[in-house]
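Thought: the user wants the 3D structure for the chain below. I'll pass the sequence to the structure tool as-is, report back what it returns, then summarize two notable features.
Action: structure_tool
Action Input:
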Amino acid sequence: MKTFRVIVKKKNIILGEKVVEATSFIKRLCGLMFQSSFTKFDGMMIAPCNSIHTFFMKMPIHAIFLDKYNRIVKIYEYLVPWRITRIIFKAEKVLEISTQKNISNLKEGDLVEVICLS
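Observation:
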């Protein structure tokens, strides 16, 4: 499984030092289901993906949808369990991170840098 470092370089915001990917159907479907915290990783990058659900999740998350150029196209702050996002037609992937991360300075259009670590 690949891991990534994810940052918003121009704003010097680190979104994740160890972000894991979910690219298989099962991993994308399950995502963070039944997880009670981010312990072994900082976040999850789900691709391809343009909508998510938080069924069976035990914690709220921030969901940051990215286009094919890694520009932010939609941000959901504090997305609580048992919700579904709308379809984000411009999105190619989504980054799910802990609500402990301060993302108040992020906005749509910001460019995210995704650096492959393994």
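Final Answer: Structure generated. The two ends are 8 Å apart (CA to CA). Residues 6 and 114 are 5 Å apart (CA to CA).
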